[in-house]
Amino acid sequence: MQQPEAGDKSRSLPSPCPPQASLTDVSFYTRRCITEDLSWSLVTVPPLTELCLQHIAHNFENNPILNDLLPEHQKKVVERLSTSLPLSVTANRVSHEEYWKRCCMERWQVCDVSNYGDSWKRMFFERHLENLLKFFIPNTTDPDQILDLIPLCQDYVRKLEINQFLPPLQVDPKEEGHDLSDAEDEAEMGEVYKHHYNLKELITSLPHLEELHLIYDVKSCGMNFEWNLFNFTELDCSNLASAVRMCRNLKVFKLTRSKVDDEKIKLLARSLQYHPRLLELDLSHNLIRDHGAQAIGKLISHSKLETLNLCNNQICHLGAQALAQGLAESSTLTSLNLRLNFVEDKGGEAIGRALLTNTSLKCLHLGSNNLSEPTAAVFSQVLAQNTSLTSINFSCNHLGLDGGKQLLAGLANNKTLTELDLRHAEVEQETDFRIHEIVWANREAVRLASLQHPSTEPL
């Protein structure tokens, strides 16, 4: 092959740069490369592991394989999961608290997880179930909404607080075309069809339920107000009694502001009489009278109750005497609240005499019970002999000057009482001051003892 001569310019190799004239050509600088893929970018392609995790999160509803992944991969998938996924998919598969925290925060503005054992998952299922029950309308809402949720939430629900039960929207006659002309028949029909959601099947399916707080009430009824919206019917009571009797792990039962009368509380007391674990019973703000209190007195003596709240009922001295008898036989009751009743001196004296032998009660509230000097005389003996009482409330009574002095005399050698409320009890100011000094000294002694012995629980 002939090599080009050194001086032959026509045979020289082409220059990689354009001629000098072409460098001034404007078209050289305006030429651009336009790709066909508009989504193409220079970002580094994610690792295959990340692409797989994204795919798993995106298709989790159809293929939930979370438990088959490594722990670090599980965390990444959970972070990408949508909170709108069906509970049937996530309830028993996703245990990561961060996911349930997102579910709670997106649904409710106020979320205090400390009320739910610091468990976001427990909070979600308890509040979700409570909302379903609060807005359940008998004969209208599909019961499967709640029944289908039971297998998903039964392992996480420990407490239920339901402050509303809606009645049926309308009354359906038993027979089509049947005309109720008699007022008594209408009342019976109203009783039948104004019942609320039956909790029996739900409660008996929650093996870990420990607290049940119920109020048979209707919120924000507005112009649709009717008194029968707030009725706790006989059928409701019968269903509830069966439910709590079968809920063997129940420890706290509160049925307040529900118009519970004597007949209904008798039925409930019989169901709770031999309950193996019930520790706290709250029946405040109801319509319980003496006959109902007698049933509760039997309950106190046959159960393991530690706290009993009967505030704001209609219990008179006969009911208080029955409660006193149960208190004398009880070895577990530590707190009794009878505020805003009508026990008067006969009932107050009976309770005081029971405390001469009872050694378990620590807190007693007898405020606003129309008590006077005879009750103070009995409690003077109680304060001199009883060594378990730490708190007594006599506020808003008529103990008078002599009653205050008798209480002061009983406190002379008392070393355990750390609270004695005598506000508006018509006690002389000087007597009240001296009583306060003794009680304060006892409280300070208990505080110092707790500092010296940290393992001992303070009173």
What features would you highlight for this structure?
single chain; about 450 residues; alpha/beta; nine-stranded parallel sheet; 18 helices; 9 strands; about 40% helix
What structural class results from the helix and strand content?
A: alpha/beta
Widest sheet: strand ordering: 1-2-3-4-5-6-7-8-9
Average pLDDT works out at: 88
Q: Count up the helices.
A: 18
Strand content: 5-15%
Distance between the terminal alpha carbons, to the nearest Å?
114 Å
**What is the element string, with H for helices and E for strands?**
HHHHHHHHEHHEHEHEHEHEHEHEHEH
User: Which residues sit in consecutive blocks of at least 5 with pLDDT less than 50?
Assistant: 172-192
What would you say this structure looks like, in words?
The chain has 459 residues and is an alpha/beta fold. 41% of the residues lie in helices and 7% in strands. It has helices at 26-30, 48-58, 71-80, 87-90, 97-107, 120-134, 144-147, 150-153, 183-193, 200-203, 234-246, 262-272, 290-302, 317-329, 344-354, 373-385, 400-410, 429-452, and strands at residues 159-162, 211-214, 252-255, 280-282, 307-309, 335-337, 363-365, 391-393, 419-421. Strands 1-2-3-4-5-6-7-8-9 form a nine-stranded parallel sheet. Strand 5, helix 14 and strand 6 (335-337) form a beta-alpha-beta unit. The protein is elongated. Residues 172-192 have low confidence and may be disordered.
Write the layout of secondary structure elements.
Layout: H1 26-30, H2 48-58, H3 71-80, H4 87-90, H5 97-107, H6 120-134, H7 144-147, H8 150-153, E1 159-162, H9 183-193, H10 200-203, E2 211-214, H11 234-246, E3 252-255, H12 262-272, E4 280-282, H13 290-302, E5 307-309, H14 317-329, E6 335-337, H15 344-354, E7 363-365, H16 373-385, E8 391-393, H17 400-410, E9 419-421, H18 429-452
Parallel strand pairs: 1-2, 2-3, 3-4, 4-5, 5-6, 6-7, 7-8, 8-9
Helix pairs in contact: 2-3, 5-6, 11-12, 12-13, 13-14, 14-15, 15-16, 16-17, 17-18
